[in-house]
Design brief:
Number of helices of chain B: 11
CATH class of chain A: Mainly Alpha
Oligomer: heterodimer
Strand order of the largest sheet of chain B: 2-1-3-4-5-11
CATH topology of the largest domain in chain B: Rossmann fold
Distance between the termini of chain A: 45 Å
Shape of chain A: globular
CATH architecture of the largest domain in chain B: 3-Layer(aba) Sandwich
Largest interface: A-B, 50 and 48 residues
CATH architecture of chain A: Orthogonal Bundle
Radius of gyration of chain A: 19 Å
Helix content of chain A: over 70%
Number of strands of chain A: 4
Strand content of chain B: 15-25%
Strand order of the largest sheet of chain A: 1-4
Strand content of chain A: under 5%
């Protein structure tokens, strides 16, 4: 029974569940660092998923689908940036409004553009192919799980070290964090909080849009109404749990995804759905309690460096 | 503060403007002086087969009895109510309503208008008023027939269902599917998993992972009971090469060669028969339609021409089609009793 649950397919499934959450959470992390509480991830992901399918269908090309997904994400986040940076609105109120807007808008455009309701699936929609990386994908266990995936999977995984370097080892990253932590001090030094906050919010829109594209062109090749199904909210929690640190966010997203994939397996072995559904959240709570102190010290060390 | 309110106001207005769209058009058909029917949908018909069949049934009754019919299509909560009230204002012989979405409005408005007769399809309030007649399906009978197909076709002797929620109603599909398969071979093992999560009826990504998990256990026949999530299960079928089963309408064209058959709800038959019973005054408060009434079915029970064009896998197995048709007759005659998991 142990081998039936913990096989490579389980980790494969967990990776697929993790990538959309990770992409969106990395976006949320950048915003958090710039001092903007980003809770529109759910709506941006949904809009990205819709636009990606629409773009892929219209051009019969996944590349354009992904570009559409990024563009839609940035468009929505532009509204957020304008509202909460330029007009100094409350990002929570705006975020919730934008989540509702994305849900209504995609639900409205689906029948208008494609004459379907609920689900849009069509052979013209070009999905993301799995790209096996030579040599690496031949490593037993890890190979097929990590190195035989969609291009957005690699993008997401590479973004983790890239964003760490960006945030903690570049002047721009330092200024971004300065804007988030001490906006007044940053301004005194001639760093414009407006520019940095706009940049952060737009970047989070692009990343959450990518998350949507991975969901609707990678995990499955179709759009279903409200298909983000809470993954954007999980990303918001992953940002907090990972203390807005790239490695922490990766760990949080992986934990959620693994718990979810495990839940599916346990269900097959007779565990009731009510328990497996709660599993990701129970595991998160436990992780929060057990690892908090040690984890916090570790992260403070890396951030202080 | 002022700015914030303004922004929120603009956002909400934009959302409302998009959500609110005109009330659907009326497909009026001038007929004779027979009975009049008005069909009110909870959503635009569009390409929704289920709602379209409701209209087909309404039209058929009106034309057969030389009457008149209309359709009011709704797009959201507020115009659902407005449409039903508009229908009541015209005082037709019957107002035809469909699906669970309209259950509360049907209950409230039928009690408020005791002289107006209503039909509600595929749902029923707990205590329907005397003027409200519900037409419901015995979905378990069709699911049992699908189980027979799985029992004959499964080589691994492992089957499963991916179901939206763990509620007694949906066990009508999954339990009866397993029962049908085990009637062929009692050694067949059944695994049921539930999609759950925030959005069980429209989360294809989650449904796909669940289906892959069931397939990884060795199941080669998996019943997709996930409504809007079904597309993910069919993708998993194409990827892993297992066979699947659809619900409500013929879903075989969504993954040709990977869907054996579907548990059909023949809404048109149900509307037609129930409307006639209501007009005769013979209808009970809740009328259940199963295989005997032709209200539920599978593609294998359709005519040979329809079956040949269905793109369903079962069309390639005439021997199993014959067996399924015999089983249908046995269920209709009462020789096979399919228990109802809703009351079991």
């Amino acid at each position: 029974m142990f081998e039936q649950i913990f096989d490579a397919a389980l980790f494969d499934s967990a990776t697929r569940a993790m990538i959309p959450i990770l992409l969106a959470a990395l976006g949320g992390m950048i915003c958090e660092r710039a001092g903007v509480f980003q809770i529109a991830l759910e709506g941006i992901m949904l809009a990205g998923a819709f636009a990606a399918v629409a773009g892929s269908y219209l051009a019969i090309s996944w590349t354009l689908g992904v570009v559409f997904g990024i563009a839609a994400g940035m468009l929505i986040s532009l509204a957020l940036a304008y509202g909460c940076v330029t007009r100094r609105g409350d990002p929570i109120v705006l975020g919730i409004a934008l989540n509702l807007l994305a849900m209504g808008l995609t639900g409205f455009l689906l029948p208008q553009l494609f004459d379907v309701r609920g689900v849009f699936q069509h052979p013209r929609i070009d999905g993301l192919d799995r790209i096996a990386i030579p040599i690496l994908s031949d490593i037993p266990w890890i190979g097929p799980v990590l190195f035989d995936n969609t291009i957005l999977t690699y993008v997401a995984l590479l973004l983790v070290p890239a964003l760490w370097v960006f945030l903690f080892r570049t002047p721009v990253g330092l200024r971004l964090r300065g804007v988030g932590e001490r906006p007044l001090a940053a301004e005194t030094l001639g760093v414009s909080p407006t520019v940095y906050k706009y940049g952060a919010v737009l970047a989070s829109g692009a990343l959450a849009g990518l998350a949507g594209a991975q969901l609707s062109l990678g995990n499955v090749v179709q759009f279903a109404e409200n298909m983000s199904s809470g993954r954007g909210w999980v990303a918001v929690v992953a940002v907090m749990l990972g203390r807005a640190h790239p490695v922490g966010v990766l760990a949080a997203a992986a934990l959620f995804a693994l718990a979810e994939a495990l839940g599916f397996r346990f269900q097959g072995n007779g565990l009731p759905v009510q328990i497996t559904d709660a599993l990701p959240f129970v595991v998160t709570l436990l992780a929060l309690i057990i690892a908090r102190k040690r984890f916090a010290r570790l992260l403070d060390l890396t951030t202080a460096a | 503060m002022k700015n914030r309110k303004m922004i929120l106001g603009i956002a909400l207005m934009a959302a409302l403007a998009l959500l609110a769209s005109a009330c659907g058009g009326d497909d009026e058909d001038a007929g004779g002086d027979g009975p009049s029917l008005i069909y009110v949908t909870p959503n635009p018909i569009g390409v929704n087969k289920f709602l379209e069949l409701g209209q087909v049934g309404t039209q058929r009754v009106a034309e057969e009895l030389d009457g008149t019919w209309k359709t009011f299509e709704s797009t959201n909560d507020s115009d659902r109510r407005a449409n039903i009230e508009a229908a009541i204002d015209e005082a037709p012989d019957i107002v035809v309503l469909t699906t669970f979405t309209l259950i509360e409005l049907a209950d409230e408005l039928s009690k408020a208008n005791p002289d107006q007769k209503f039909i509600l399809i595929d749902a029923c309030p707990n205590e329907p008023a005397a003027n409200l007649h519900c037409g419901v399906f015995r979905e378990h009978e069709g699911a049992y027939l699908l189980g027979i197909m799985a029992g004959r076709l499964s080589e691994a002797k492992e089957i499963g269902s991916v179901v939206a929620l763990d509620i007694p109603f949906l066990h009508r599909w999954s339990d009866s599917f397993a029962l049908g398969a085990q009637s062929i071979d009692p050694s067949i093992n059944d695994t049921q998993v539930f999609i759950g999560g925030d959005n069980p009826f429209s989360d294809p990504a989650r449904a796909k992972e669940q289906a892959l998990a069931v397939a990884a256990r060795g199941a080669d026949h998996i019943f997709a009971v996930g409504a809007g999530s079904n597309g993910g299960i069919f993708e998993a079928a194409q990827q892993e090469g297992f066979l699947s089963y659809g619900v409500d309408v013929n879903q075989c064209p969504e993954a040709p060669g990977h869907i054996v058959d579907n548990n059909l709800k023949l809404v048109d038959v149900l509307v037609e028969q129930l409307a006639k019973q209501v007009l005769d005054g013979t209808a009970g408060p809740v009328v259940a339609f199963g295989l005997a009434e032709g209200g539920t079915g599978v593609m294998a029970l359709e005519s040979d021409e329809v079956l040949a064009d269905s793109q369903c896998v079962i069309a390639d197995h005439p021997d199993i089609v014959a067996e399924v048709r015999d089983a249908r007759d046995a269920i209709v005659d009462g020789d096979i009793v399919v228990p109802d998991p809703l009351f079991g």
